[in-house]
Write a structure and sequence with these properties.
Shape of chain A: rod-shaped
Helix content of chain B: 40-55%
Largest sheet of chain A: none
Order of helices and strands of chain B: HHEEEEEHEHEHEHEHEHHHEEE
Largest sheet of chain B: 5 strands, mixed, barrel
Mean pLDDT of chain A: 84
Shape of chain B: rod-shaped
Strand content of chain A: under 5%
Number of helices of chain A: 2
Structural class of chain B: alpha/beta
Number of helices of chain B: 10
Number of domains of chain A: 1
Strand content of chain B: 15-25%
Oligomer: heterodimer
Distance between the termini of chain B: 199 Å
Strand order of the largest sheet of chain B: 1-2-3-5-4
Low-confidence stretches of chain A: none
Number of strands of chain A: 0
Helix content of chain A: over 70%
Low-confidence stretches of chain B: none
Mean pLDDT of chain B: 87
Order of helices and strands of chain A: HH
Number of strands of chain B: 13
Structural class of chain A: mainly alpha
Largest interface: A-B, 27 and 21 residues
Radius of gyration of chain B: 59 Å
Chain lengths: ~60, ~400
Amino acid sequence: MSDLSFEEALKQLDAILESLNDDNLTLEQAIQYYEEGIRLHQCCEALLNEASNRFTEINESLKS
Amino acid sequence: MKVKPLKVSEVNNYIRKIFYSNPILNNVSVIGEVKDLRHSKNGYQYFSLKEDHSMIHCVCFQPDLEIPEDKIAVIKGRVETYDKRSVYQLIVQEAEIMSEGLESQYLKELMAKLEKKGYFALDQKKKLPAYPSKIGVITSMEGAVIADIKRVFDECQVGLDVYFYNAYVQGRSAVFNMVAGLKYFNEVLPCDVIVLARGGGSKVDLEAFNDEVLADTIFQSRVPVVTGVGHGTDLSIADLTADREVQTPTAAAELLTRHYHLAIRNLPHIKDHLIQKYQQISLQKFYYVNLLKDRLIRWDYAYYLSRKQHHLSKKISDISNESAQYIFQRQKSLNARKKQLDEHDYKGILSKGFFLARNQLGELITDLKSVSTGETLSIEDRAHFVKVTITEKGEK
């Protein structure tokens, strides 16, 4: 899971969202998908935070 | 039998009398081509009457009698000799034109033919070298021509290499000799320029210079050819074919040394000019170098550096902005998905009095028919769970 890139995680999140919109979805499946979606979202956010921090770090080093 | 020796005058007189008393020689009509017509001061006209390789001298004492030069004519008169010089000549009484001279006709046709071949065209003429160093002269070693030419070349003291090719310039061998000379100075001893020279002569004597083979050789010569053939007014075919023609051999030599003489005369002037030019150019260069030095000194390197610095800062700020934008865009698209995900949050339902029931395996119970009495279930809300045991089961 931690090996996932931001783009791959986002792609999987999109697939989850599409599945969640399916009307024939059972409640059990919906919960499973939802939990997986939340997990992917957290993963993306973490990757994004990491990237942002790296950018800031580099920019600071450029300015100094 | 012993014969008494006669005096020269007696023999000459005797011959004169025989000529005089001969009825044929006394009244004769001769047909031939009139050549080399000359007029003496006292109005006498001298010429040659020619037929192929035979010739008879003629004299006309009547200044008004028109002698048709270069024409075939019938000359009436008597053949005479005289005591002083026992040379016979035809004393002309009448002259009647027959037709245009055969030779002239031939010459005209040849000229037309060669002109058509481009032999006389100015754009075919090779340029003479201004400063020739190797000069080939084709002329007869006999006669004054060679001394004249040598004198002119010697006067030009620049160490010219002048080579002479001995050639007959009149008579039967002339064409052959001159052609060989031209080939010699093209192939055996290549020169910068060739001079074909001959002193003055009568029209008949210059026949060799109207030869087609000679014209061919001159035209084909890789080395430029100058003719210096003493002649009257008419140019020979050789003159017309040559790259340059002048009136005399001396003139040819003068033509080829002209630039040397000019250069020698101008040397001091050229030297002055060079020095002047050098000074002018070096002054210009010094001025230019100083100008560059001034510009260098006045160059504001601090301003240059500050501009570069500014440029660099802008780049850094651009990079920073770009990266922030990059993160922002992705955060935005992630947020959009989070919003969609929230719409599917089942936990909202749990706050409205609904609970989730799971069996011991953690599986969600969706139909109570599947549970049996005595089984323990887990009941969950948003934050809590309780374990319950089924005591009763029935239908509603």
